[in-house]
Amino acid sequence: MLAASSYDLGMNRPHYASVAAIGLSVAVSVGDLWFAMPLHLPAAVDPWLHPLGVLARLAPVVAGALIVLRRASNRVGWTLMVCGTLVIGLQLCRMAAVAAVELLPSSPDLVLSAAHALAAVPQAFFGLVYAWPAAIVLLFPDGRFSGSSDRWCFWGILGASVSLGVAGIAGAPVTPAPYEGRPNVFHVSWFEPFGDVIFAAGWLVLWGLLAANVVIVARRLRRATGERRLQLLWLTVAAVLPPVSLIGCVLALTGSLDMRYVDVAVSAAQLLVVAAVIVAVTKHGLYGIERLINRTLVYVSLTLLVAVVFLAVTIGSGLLVGAGSSWGTALATAAAAVIFFQARTAAQKFIDRRFASRKFAAMNALREYTGRLHCGDAELGDIVPLLGRILGDATLRGYFPCEAGWRTIDDQPAVLDPGAGRAHSTVRFAGSQVAVIEHSVALSYTPELVRSVLGEAAGTLAMARLHLQVKHQLEEVKASRERIVQAGYLERRRLERDLHDGAQQRLVALGISLRRLQHSLPSGASVIAPALDTAVQQVGEAIGDLRAIAAGIRPTRLDDGLRAALDDLTQNSPIPVEVNVPDSRIPSELEAAAYFIVCEAVTNAVKHAAPSRVIVRGALDGATLRMSVADDGRGGAVADAKGGGLSGMADRARAHGGTLVVRSQPGTGTTVEVVLPCG
Q1: Which end of the chain is more exposed for a tag (fewer CB within 10 A), N or C?
Q2: Which residues cross the membrane (predicted)?
Q3: What is the SS3 string spanning 247-277?
């Protein structure tokens, strides 16, 4: 934030001062355009150059006044407004002089001569155009010089500018444009021999101090961090233009450069300083400077490269096919176009490596990780820690939107609530939000780095989000399957209990009643005894069928444990079955699953493998039940794609979160191994 302090002069009436400065500046600018522009601009000069200069002189006054109106205690706003008003005052001298000459032509000769000389004051004191941008840069952000070097640099620039003005006014015997060739009433004859020396020394000192101003600001920039660094970066860019345009001005005076380019550069420098101050004070668009500098360097280097290639091909083709040939121009244009498109990526990498080394290293690290990820040498879960390392923020966190809310990369629930010193950056991929990265607020001051890194990582973060979503969907399917299995198991128990306590008991009671009826018959009724025997036998067979059905749904012996149920199973087997299963108890639904898997495996062996014996083994390994059914039959068992046999056993094992493996080589028997988690 800019420091707020009282500004002693005029601070009690900032509104009136701002309005007066704007009103004076607008009036002088309009008068300058009306009087001066038609008079002193030659026909060969582009008519838009003078309005551009007027706009550049008017911009600091308006910007400074607006800043003062918004923040009356802002010293930079006051400095901008006062310096801009002084520059406008130079234009007021021109406008007053032109008005006196054009509107009062019958004035005394002394008045007209003074007006002729006064009209040249803005040109003589042109160095002040370079002084106020330097003052703004040195006084930013609190309106005070940060050290003695800043103070000496500013007063040196101001002194050199005034010296140039005095040398231009007092050293010339005749007036320059717009009333050139008239006697200069301000001429000092004894000063004339020193005028050229002072003029040359003044320009040299002014350029050296402007260059020193850039060095001072760059040194402050290296020490600055966070938001202050971005503010100074804008001003550093603005501070570079004045010494560059001053060199152009010297070249124009020597005839080596068109003065129009210098006018444009000077006006652009003033406008850029004003824009930099507005951005730095309001902080609107503050974070775009790094990207702007990067793109400027890339395209300037490309422009120079294309120009060199075009010139070289043009000269070479001219030597080969002759000067003036259209083929040479066409070939040069084609070569320049090819170079531009082919060299853009290389230029971007070169600029990033030289001027954005942190971004360059971060992008390389991300691309290396992506390559390893595609090769299967890295994990998706590494992306968020990697972002923290390459961005230099060990506290960086990634949050992914899921149906169950926000989740972290390790699938932990999270709440988006940044605390003090934290900030959020949204990551989008293909138009959709895929993640939110929480990081230190200090990274907000390097937005180009964060934007580039998160843009490069967007695809990987989208994959991580998709991985979490699929994981949750699979977990939901698993939980749903377990609920279905549990419901089926409870339903089988209910059916088994209903059969045992309902139909079976009623059949038993019916058989007993029939037998009592048979015993109570008189001796003469013995003829119906065989029929009653048959009825009792059929009731017994029905009871046996119900018991078999109930055992298929859920054996009653499972109430005594898996070992007891398997022992009953082997008693009716046509081949020897060895059972080696511990007596330990596990959840009843898992006992039922293990029983039916073993039952199916033994039935398949007896039915299809023709073994001499079957061995059933089981072990409880911590929270895991391991069962195996091995036979010495013909082998070669193949799973049925329709879901029966081996496939049905595998489905039953997976329904409880377990696995089933079948080893069956022809001639070596078959082994079915099942693992069921019990935790």
Answers
A1: C
A2: 16-36, 48-69, 76-97, 117-140, 152-174, 194-218, 230-253, 265-286, 298-321, 327-347
A3: HHHHHHHCCCCCHHHHHHHHHHHHHHHHHHH
- pTM of the predicted structure, to 2 decimals: 0.50
Give Cα 270 distance to the centre of its chain. Answer: 34
What's the gap between Cα 145 and its chain centre? 38
pLDDT recorded at residue 47: 64
534 by Cβ neighbours in 10 Å (0-12 / 13-18 / 19+) ranks as exposed
Contact yes or no for 631/670 (Cβ under 8 A): yes
Closest CA to 672 of 621, 599, 620: 599
Residue type present at position 422:
R
Range of weakest confidence among 238-242, 328-332, 572-576: 328-332
Q: How many residues does the chain have?
A: 679
Distance CA 193, CA 236 (A): 39
Band of pLDDT at residue 674, cut at 50, 70 and 90: very high
pLDDT of 154 > 80? The answer is yes
pLDDT tens, residue by residue, 438-455: 888 878 777 778 888 898
Q: How far apart are CA 512 and CA 518, in angstroms?
A: 10
Q: How many helices (H) and strands (E) does the chain have?
A: 21, 9
Instruction: Reply yes or no on whether the pLDDT at 13 is more than 80.
Output: no
Q: What is the DSSP string of 71-102?
A: -TT-HHHHHHHHHHHHHHHHHHHHHHHHHHHH
Q: Which residues contact 182 (CB under 8 A, 6 or more apart)?
A: 113, 116, 117, 174, 175
Who contacts 675 (Cβ-Cβ below 8 Å, separation ≥6)?
624, 625, 626, 653, 658, 659, 660
For residues 624-639, give the mean pLDDT.
86
Edge-to-edge strand list for the sheet holding 432-440: 405-408, 397-402, 432-440, 422-429
Helix, strand or coil, per DSSP, at residue 420:
coil
Q: Residue 264 to residues 56, 259, 272, 470: CA-CA distances in angstroms? A: 10, 9, 12, 60
CA angle 177, 183, 186 (to 5 degrees): 90
Sequence-distant (6+) residues with CB within 8 A of 11 are: 72, 73
Task: Give the Cα separation of 490 and 484 in Å (integer).
Answer: 10
DSSP helix/strand/coil, 432: strand
**b vs e for 460-486, b when ≥16 Cβ sit within 10 Å of the residue's Cβ?**
bbbebbebbbeeeeeeeeeeeeeeebe
**Per residue in 270-281, is it b (16+ CB within 10 Å) or e — as a string?**
bbbbbbbbbbbb
Q: Tokens 């009690």 map to which residue? A: 12
Cβ–Cβ contacts within 10 Å for residue 210, how many?
A: 28
